[in-house]
Design brief:
Elements (H helix, E strand, L loop, with lengths): L1 H8 L5 E7 L2 E7 L3 H9 L3 H14 L9 H18 L1
Antiparallel strand pairs: 1-2
Length: about 90
């Protein structure tokens, strides 16, 4: 399920390229679709999500405690910042 979301929700980031033609300078849009624009907008913060995801998957696999307060606080801070920036 998660891989389907990633495959359908993300694409090569959208970009504007210049094409120097004999008729002059032309601007061209590449990967200018919903997924390309979303990927470009999320590109600065995606490393944060990847770091949290890999830390959860590969460092917290034992689940020694019932509730990880440290992880919950970090998740609340990162999520809160994202919501505050998006508002």
């Amino acid at each position: 399920f998660a891989s389907d979301i990633i495959i359908r929700g993300f694409d090569t980031p959208a970009k504007i390229v210049t094409d120097d033609d004999s008729n002059g300078l032309k601007l061209k849009l590449e990967n200018f679709n919903y997924a390309g624009i979303v990927t470009r907008m999320l590109q600065p913060i995606l490393p944060i999500f990847f770091s949290i995801q890999f830390n959860f998957l590969y460092e917290g696999w034992r689940n020694d405690t019932g509730f990880d307060l440290n992880a919950a606080v970090r998740f609340a801070i990162v999520g809160g910042l994202i919501i505050a920036i998006g508002a």
